[in-house]
Structures are given as structure tokens and as C-alpha cells.
Amino acid sequence: RYCRLRNWNTLFVCGTDEYGTATETRALEEGLSPQELCDRYHAVHADVYAWFGISFDHFGRTTTPQQTRIAQDIFQRLLARGFLLQDTLEQLRCESCGRYLADRFVEGTCPFCGYAEARGDQCDKCGKLINAVELKNPQCKLCHSTPVVTPTQHLFLDLPKLEGRLEAWLERTWAAGDWTANARHITRTWLRDGLKPRCITRDLAWGTPVPLDGFRDKVFYVWFDAPIGYLSITANYTEQWERWWKNPQQ
């Protein structure tokens, strides 16, 4: 509102981030399809913002054709420029359900503190992050059978390839003094330990499809997909969306 009052050219977008295991899990609990669940909660969120009088230029969502098109285009550009790797992950697979179990679909005993109801991504008692295959006595959250560790191929962002360029960019931006002390500390810690390849695919049905042979039964990991939502929501608002996101001089 301040920017608008100053007559600055302003775009204010937001939206619901709808893909991922949290949506699949909740949809199963409520007996709905993921799309039905997202339709319901998108309307709830929109009503809440309207009640608060928050005036978005566009309140969108990530389950749109524009999201698929832009996310897949970014993926193809990364692939063409050599910024993606293939590697094998050990994942839990439920033979009864016939599916790999994403972290929220498996529960077991925490390997650190012994809490019996730890999730496949984090223990709510001791707070430590967990790799699902590290759980003791793992159980499928859907059918309660015991899953087995199975290798599966995934795609990764080759972040180590960008480390040198990132460090040079950080030195320039840190010199400008616009970073908080906390943000600097966290970023320095990542660089001190060395960047690691980051997985961008998941063995799920609910998500943006991966447009590459050998991976077409997978979707993009929500943390790769979700930030692109700002671009696609802008694209749903205006065909000139690239002028907002690819205009560093302004």
C-alpha cells in the first residue's frame, strides 16, 4: 500500500503452495483427492485474506498449467546447462501399497532418542532431522506393514558446481551491508561445510511431472517446485510476467 501510495509500479502476489507429501497425507486422512483438498483450502485462505483486507493483485496457486510449463522449462534449462546429476537413493518401499514411501508416509522409532512415533523426516520429541531409512521399526502410515529399503534413481541439483560463483556473488552483496547477521552466519556455515547436491525429484503422484525419460513416474520435490509459484502466479496475472522477474535494471 505504501508503494502504491508513492505511485511506484507495484505487483503484489501470493498463493497457496499445493503440491507435496503433506497434501497427499491430509487428503488420505480426509477421504478426498489431493485436488479436492487443495480446492477447499485455497478458498479458505482466500476468504481469510479478504477478511483482513489484504489486497493482492492476484492470489493464485501452484496447481496450474502455467506452473507446470514454467517449472518444466526451468528444469530443461538446468539440464541443458549441465547443472543436474543422476544418483541412486535408498528409500523405503511398501510392497503392500506398491509405492515408495515419502518421508511423511512412514513412522518408526527415532534412532537418536528412541521416541516411538517419529516421522520419516523429523523426530517431534528431540527435534532432530531424520532420513527415513534410519528409522528403527519403520511402518507404512497407510497400511502399517513393514517397508523394505529399495534403491531408486533421482535427479539432483549440482550445487557444488555453483559454489565458486556463489561465493564471489556473496562477497559483493555482503559488502553492501543488506544482510542480517543471522542470514550471513547460516550461509557461511553452508559454504564452510561445502555445498552438497540437492535432490529435486520424489516418488509421488501429486506434483509437477518430471519431463525426462526414466523419471516420468516421478514429480518435482516441492522445495524445487514451490518457489517457482511466484513466477507462475505472476504469469496467471499478466502475460508480461517476465518483465517483473527478468528486469534487473529496475
TrEMBL record:
Taxonomic placement: Eukaryota, Metazoa, Chordata, Craniata, Vertebrata
Record domain Methionyl/Leucyl tRNA synthetase: where: 1-248
UniProt xrefs under Pfam families: tRNA-synt_1g
InterPro entries per the UniProt record, alphabetical: Met-tRNA_ligase_1 (IPR023458), Methionyl/Leucyl_tRNA_Synth (IPR015413), MetRS_core (IPR033911), MetRS_Zn (IPR029038), Rossmann-like_a/b/a_fold (IPR014729)
Record bears the keyword Nucleotide-binding: yes
Source organism: Oriolus oriolus (Eurasian golden oriole)
EC number: 6.1.1.10
GO biological processes: methionyl-tRNA aminoacylation
Catalytic activity, as annotated: tRNA(Met) + L-methionine + ATP = L-methionyl-tRNA(Met) + AMP + diphosphate
Name of the protein: Methionine--tRNA ligase, cytoplasmic
Membrane-crossing segments per the record: none
Keywords from the named record: Aminoacyl-tRNA synthetase, ATP-binding, Cytoplasm, Ligase, Nucleotide-binding, Protein biosynthesis
GO MF term set: ATP binding; methionine-tRNA ligase activity
Protein origin, superkingdom: Eukaryota
Record-stated family: Belongs to the class-I aminoacyl-tRNA synthetase family.
One GO cellular component term noted in the UniProt record for this chain: aminoacyl-tRNA synthetase multienzyme complex
Protein localization: Cytoplasm
